[in-house]
Design a protein that fits this description.
The complex is a heterodimer of chains A (368) and B (96).
Chain A lengths: L13 E5 L26 H14 L3 E5 L9 H10 L3 E6 L6 H10 L3 E6 L4 H8 L4 H15 L3 E7 L7 H11 L3 E6 L4 H5 L1 H4 L3 H18 L4 E5 L19 E4 L5 E2 L20 H7 L1 H5 L16 H4 L4 H8 L16 H8 L18
Parallel strand pairs in A: 1-2, 1-8, 2-3, 3-4, 4-5, 5-6, 6-7
Antiparallel strand pairs in A: 8-9
Chain B lengths: L2 E2 L2 E2 L4 E3 L4 E5 L4 E6 L2 E4 L2 H7 L8 H12 L3 H17 L3 E3 L1
Helix pairs in contact in B: 2-3
């Protein structure tokens, strides 16, 4: 696994550890791949501990324990404690439905730094319909109460789409009521499950603008008390996003079975070999694997990216989106107005049905 | 001048839970670790934040830095108070 002559890559800043793909919820925009890893293939505790050692030695600063639902792993608190002992900043990304006073106490005592708690809506009934889990909303409210009572900093995460966009003001109110320090209003990104459900999720431009207005008003009202992270739906953007801060630049993702990926959705790109932590060290994968060097830097770029003044800013956009929309992961991200395949984005918007179709829920039985 | 927008030398700064200063041995730089982001602490911020322990007042921190850098106290006061205000606005520091 060597690429001779390549300049040394910058050390990664953060690691998303997808401990499991198991989850009591079945959100139709889940960032997990369509092909979900089964429980039997999950990395064991000792392997995760070794991965954490390697991550800290490489210069990774923050570790995000995610899933599926990471609290479905009984060794979560042990992994947090180990990460904390290595100086890693530990973040838990959770649905909250498995969180109670006991499980929270174990995590807090292990030194967990921060929790990001997801809500599917501000409205209980709608949230439970979107997440596909009855009784979830009350559990989330209780989880938020326990987290704030413990004193752990809390971020609320809302994924936005055409079926909940009108309630963004209520979501911001809920974040304030619950004592969150941050809130993410993140429009759906259309890969994997989100792409499969795009017609049921993609908002129209008026809905998008209403969410932008609600966020601007809340920023004025909240001042420095609550920070709002707003993620735009890039189908409506002028220019593509610098996905993950660039392929193999700042971020890596480890799947439940130990595959190391430059982003959550990279497994959707055919013909690639995904190296595993069970066979290689994390550092050798980051520095030397063909996968991480494939779209690193700017040499791989086609036109119009190659001669574009913005190529260092947007890094050619997202490879998975290029694959999903242009049928070629090497192409310019079709979100870009200069991309040859930009019409695919406009088509998705204009051909969006007036009535949203039924969700195809994220569950093992719907997995490909 | 000993105050700036409500901050005085008597205030005692401490890190908000979920934020801390950390030396990154790989990059050989100081970072502020905070929820969902780590940002570079410049040289001035790193000097100040290394003295934040929830016990020292801003006045005591200013005294220590004045001595360490043999600099005019007025200059240090400006640096410390404006940096403290900025980090309080970013939810990194709390002032008691």
């Amino acid at each position: 696994m060597t690429t001779s002559g390549a300049p040394k890559a910058p050390a990664p800043m953060s690691l998303l550890a997808e401990l499991t793909h198991r989850c009591p919820l079945q959100c139709p925009y889940c960032s997990n791949p369509l092909q979900l890893d089964p429980r039997a293939g999950e990395l064991d505790t000792q392997t995760w501990m070794r991965v954490l050692d390697e991550a800290a030695a490489m210069g990774i600063l923050q570790i995000h324990f995610s899933g599926g639902e990471p609290m479905a792993r009984p060794d979560l608190a042990d992994l947090v404690r180990h990460a904390v002992s290595l100086g890693l900043y530990t973040n838990l990304i959770t649905s909250g439905v498995l969180l109670n006073a006991d499980t929270l106490k174990r995590l807090s005592e292990a030194g967990l730094d921060h929790i990001q708690l997801s809500f599917q809506d501000a409205d209980a009934q709608e949230g439970e319909r979107i997440g596909g889990m009855a009784g979830a909303h009350a559990k989330k409210l209780e989880a938020a109460r326990l987290i704030v009572e413990d004193g752990l900093p809390l971020t609320l995460n809302f994924v936005i789409h055409r079926q909940n966009a009108e309630r963004v003001p209520a979501m911001l109110d809920l974040a304030e009521q619950l004592g969150a320090r941050r809130v993410e209003i993140a429009h759906t990104q259309y890969y994997g499950w989100g792409l499969l459900n795009r017609d049921a999720l993609l908002p129209d431009r008026a809905q998008l603008e209403a969410t932008e207005k609600a966020v601007a008003e809340a920023r004025t009202r909240f001042g420095n008390r609550i920070a709002i992270d707003f993620v735009t739906p890039d189908y409506y953007a002028e220019r593509p996003k610098p996905c993950m801060g660039g392929w193999g630049q700042r971020f890596l993702n480890i799947s439940p079975s130990g595959k190391v990926l430059p982003c959550h959705a990279a497994e959707s790109i055919p013909g690639l070999t995904f190296p595993s932590v069970t066979e290689h060290s994390l550092d050798s994968i980051w520095q030397d694997s063909p996968l991480f060097n494939l779209y690193r830097g700017t040499d791989w770029m086609p036109e119009p990216c190659q001669s574009c003044a913005f190529k260092e800013d947007d890094r050619g956009g997202c490879r998975c989106q290029a694959l999903a929309l242009a049928g070629n992961a090497d192409a310019t991200d079709p979100v870009c107005h200069r991309a040859p395949a930009h019409e695919r984005v406009e088509q998705a918007i204009t051909e969006r049905p007036i009535t949203p179709p039924a969700f195809q829920y994220r569950r093992y039985s719907n997995a490909v | 001048m000993t105050s700036l927008a409500g901050i005085t030398e008597g205030n005692v700064p401490r890190f908000v839970r979920g934020t801390r200063l950390q030396y990154d041995r790989v990059r050989e730089q100081w970072f502020v670790q905070a929820p969902e982001r780590a940002f570079l602490a410049d040289a001035v911020a790193a000097e100040i934040l290394q003295l934040v322990n929830g016990k020292h007042s801003l006045g005591q921190i200013i005294d220590q830095l004045t001595e360490k850098f043999s600099a005019p106290r007025d200059v240090i006061v400006q640096d410390v108070l404006s940096m403290t205000q900025e980090l309080a606005d970013k939810q990194v520091l709390l002032l008691a």
